[in-house]
Here is the input.
Amino acid sequence: MTTQLAIGCVGFAYLNDKARPLRINGVYPSEVTVLNGSYPIGFSGSAYSMPSQRKVVLFVCTHNSARSQLAEAILRQKFGKYYQPFSAGTETTAINPFVDHVLTEMGIKTTDLKSKNVNEFLGHLIDLVVTVCDSAEETCPFFPGAKQYKHKYFKDPNDFIGSDDKVFEAVRHLRDEISDWIEEDFAPLS
Here is the structure.
């Protein structure tokens, strides 16, 4: 059995009060078919429908090299009991080495970090898609299974200039800013 998700006029989806062209793998359909039984990454069978299941969160930025990686790793460390975080980019590249270092300072293992493309997540049910840069907010595809979209802008560490010490300090500040935001916006209700 399939469920049809009707999209606004001629292939536009209305996200964050903006009409956007609906793109899935480069195609602009006027409606999307979401298959029942399509479970988020890491889940199988009916376990996903259990109320105690963790919420799936996808953080998106342009290259998935810094901001979205930080958000994914920090959410997993702080609230992994409640969320299953992922990150991806509209384009992919190498992980920023400063990001790797500042996560290690927090005691977060970075050996499994890799830049992923948003297309890897199309077709999966996602509770929340969060864009963390303005470019990704404009170019992020529509995820038919996503329940909610959110945008939070953070500076791009790839734009930080100066000596290594100055860049490290700026990336640490960014890490702490993202960490504080995660504490405020994702902390489970008591």
Notes: The mean pLDDT is 76. The chain is about 25% helix and 20% strand.
